[in-house]
Amino acid sequence: MNPESIGTGVPTQTLGEHLRTRGLTRRSLLQYAACTASLMGLSPREAAAMAQGLEKATRQSVIWLSFQECTGCTESLTRSFSPSLEDLIFDFISLDYHHTLQAVSGEAAEAARHAAMKAHAGKYIVVVDGSVPLGEGGIYSVIAGMTNAAMLAETVEHAAAVIAVGTCAAHGGLPEARPNPTGAVAISQLVKGRTVVNIPGCPPMPQAMAGTLTHFLSLARCRSWMRWAGRRPSSAKPSTTAATAARSTTAASLPRPSTTRARAAAGACTSWAARAR
């Protein structure tokens, strides 16, 4: 859990504030925005609007649910090094709810989940590890008085996307093995009308989980920049994968940047990278 969101589920620190604590100035952010605008074929005039939007943005809200699983996926994630778990939580995302890693418990934990769902409706990402038992009304696994199926349905209702990590969540795993006494099923069998990305493995590679989360963050920002520039990319169908959705944001009709602008963008990127280090 992020320090500024404990107890509320809502991060208060914006990206601009976070960058300033890292010693990056607004001038550097403008250079980065100019670089990105040029690479996307947008007018340099739109760099200021892009920088303003980024400066006010908060980190991507992530709600992590754990159902019929062995905690191996979380254990694997803690061993990620590119990015590391610390970099992922403090620099890229706001981990607003996680059964294993959160500092709060009981009613405070559920309050954090509901607060994050309300504050980021339509924008938060749900990560799920473990299968969902449906046998006997789902009583084989209950959290905070809710069956796994009920908690999953409530949480994904207004989610932007769902990521199923581990073989149990992606394909049912060991809990679904015959005779399957709990009636376990994979997440994709219950979540319909939402983008569901499966990351199988027992456990998955830590870089696969951390990399997918950062990819979704980059994709969300890319689409936001396009909207600020007045060019809406074509919407991805709910069943598209992350890679296909990323390709859908590329508009072939956008004007290509001039050679002068491309050189200026390269200089801005170099300056940004140097300052970030």
Overall 3D form: elongated
Mean pLDDT across residues: 75
Instruction: Output the strand order for the largest sheet.
Output: 2-1-3-7-9
Instruction: Summarize the helix and strand pattern as letters.
Output: HHHEHHEHEEEEHEHEEHHH
Return the CATH architecture: 3-Layer(aba) Sandwich
- How many beta-strand segments? 9
**What portion of residues is helical?**
40-55%
Quaternary structure annotation: single chain
* Alpha plus pi helix count: 11
Quickly give the structural class. alpha/beta
Give the full name of the CATH homologous superfamily. NADH:ubiquinone oxidoreductase-like, 20kDa subunit
What is the class in the CATH system?
Answer: Alpha Beta
Write down the Rg. Answer: 20 Å
Q: What name does CATH use for the topology?
A: Rossmann fold
Fold and architecture overview:
The protein has eleven helices and nine strands. The protein is an alpha/beta fold and 277 residues long. The strands form three sheets. Strands 2-1-3-7-9 form a five-stranded parallel beta sheet, sandwiched between helices. It has a two-stranded antiparallel ribbon with strand order 4-8. It has a two-stranded antiparallel sheet with strand order 5-6. α2 crosses α3, α2 packs across α11 (259-276) and α3 crosses α9. The radius of gyration is 20 Å and the shape is elongated.
